[in-house]
Q: What sequence folds into this?
């Protein structure tokens, strides 16, 4: 279904301004993310992608600073935005990169911007601004140049200082500079376009069993096993330890349980189908953003809110391993499986095993694409030994370059085969690095 995104602007917006279709926004966004200003900054890419996706989806509540910090930069949900202004600083950087991009690509018909003081994207047609960008030179007729010549002109302005050469010398130097630089710029842009097209083709083929299915995609997140102190235990504790001001305001706090504290079974009760990890949430956000960009409908479930019949009817994405019984069930007979609480094992003749260390400074994950699962439908899993591994698996699955590099090592006809990938990631402050592939199997 085609969305139409209205230009969100100041109250004095001119009447009759056209709305920008979501498909045009996504096409323009793809060009922006592949451009030179954004190509070298993964964080800028991810932040802009998130802001555009949430704006298109009509979720302004997801564009709060703290929520962006947790969803995009892996901060704790309750982190102090004053002590850690990562969202504001990265947003300022994105604005600068956008300004640079539109300088080198003046022909781009759509303008994406993030107004200062806001984290909501604005989309508008650039018809009028293009007139100014392509205005006539003071001493010559009006011309419309490709972005390559704009780059050359900008470079000349920096290299040749005003007044240091005669006009004829500058003209000769300009022609020499253009003769060398223009072919190089064209070659560079052509190469980037070729590889970006190749990456997109491989990515689409990998995900086609999910994206091309007529039914809604089911995303299922497991629920973590958590025990809470009973109300009676908490009441008894606070009778002996009066609440301080913050607790009286309703803020939760940990009740200290020093060594030797005795707890009875009745002092604890299981909080079923209630809690998920921040890693699973971040992984789900990555998957959802990808589906939104491709206008694919999805349904998120967790806990016991899913039945076998649901999995039979819908292509499914399973998030998490040890907290997701469906992941274990769907993959238990495959080559790569989870072994105990801290390992992954190769069930073939090698019996190779990958395991986390006691400090959990690294993690492993399994990505599985099963075209004909036990349910009869396609299943994709993003599952780590720990939640950083799950998050790394989702980042791998939603990264076009990673998928493109992967499929180059797969046998011919991989598009119609099952695939398993074992990933490794380094973990710092519970945040995973970009994962690397340590094993693959295609059948």
A:
């Amino acid at each position: 279904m085609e969305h139409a995104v209205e230009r969100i602007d100041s109250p004095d917006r001119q009447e009759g301004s056209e709305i920008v279709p979501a498909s045009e926004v996504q096409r323009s966004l793809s060009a922006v993310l592949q451009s030179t200003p954004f190509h070298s900054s993964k964080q800028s890419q991810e932040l802009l992608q998130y802001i555009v996706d949430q704006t298109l989806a009509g979720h302004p509540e997801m564009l709060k600073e703290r929520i962006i910090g947790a969803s995009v930069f892996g901060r704790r949900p309750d982190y102090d935005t004053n002590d850690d202004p990562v969202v504001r600083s990265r947003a300022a950087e994105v604005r600068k990169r956008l300004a640079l991009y539109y300088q080198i690509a003046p022909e781009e018909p759509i303008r994406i911007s993030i107004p200062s003081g806001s984290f909501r994207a604005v989309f508008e047609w650039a018809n009028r601004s293009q007139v100014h960008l392509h205005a006539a030179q003071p001493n010559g007729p009006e011309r419309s140049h490709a972005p390559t010549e704009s780059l050359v002109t900008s470079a000349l302005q920096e290299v040749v200082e005003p007044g240091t050469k005669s006009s004829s010398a500058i003209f000769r130097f300009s022609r020499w500079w253009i003769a060398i630089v223009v072919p190089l710029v064209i070659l560079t842009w052509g190469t980037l376009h070729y590889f970006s097209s190749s990456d997109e083709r491989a990515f689409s083929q990998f995900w086609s069993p999910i994206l091309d299915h007529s039914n809604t995609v089911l995303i299922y997140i497991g629920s973590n096993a958590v025990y809470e102190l009973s109300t009676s235990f908490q009441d008894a504790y606070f009778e002996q330890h009066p609440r301080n001001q913050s607790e009286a305001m309703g803020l939760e706090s940990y009740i200290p349980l020093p060594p030797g504290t005795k707890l009875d079974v009745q002092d604890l009760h299981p909080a079923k189908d209630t809690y998920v990890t921040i890693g699973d949430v971040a992984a789900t956000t990555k998957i959802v953003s990808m589906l939104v960009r491709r206008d694919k409908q999805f349904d998120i479930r967790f806990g016991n809110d899913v039945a076998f019949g649901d999995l039979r009817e819908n292509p499914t994405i399973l998030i998490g391993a040890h907290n997701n019984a469906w992941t274990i069930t769907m993959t238990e007979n495959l080559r790569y499986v989870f072994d105990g609480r801290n390992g992954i094992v190769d069930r073939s003749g090698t019996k190779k095993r990958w395991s986390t260390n006691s400090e959990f400074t690294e993690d492993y994950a399994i990505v599985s694409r099963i075209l004909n699962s036990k349910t009869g439908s396609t299943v994709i899993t993003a599952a780590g030994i720990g939640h950083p591994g799950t998050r790394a698996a989702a980042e791998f699955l939603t990264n076009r370059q990673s998928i493109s590099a992967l499929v180059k090592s797969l046998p011919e006809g991989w598009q119609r085969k099952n695939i398993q990938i074992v990933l490794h990631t380094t973990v710092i402050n519970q945040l995973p690095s970009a994962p690397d592939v340590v094993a693959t199997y295609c059948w």
Q: What stands out?
A: The mean pLDDT is 80. The longest strand covers residues 419-428.
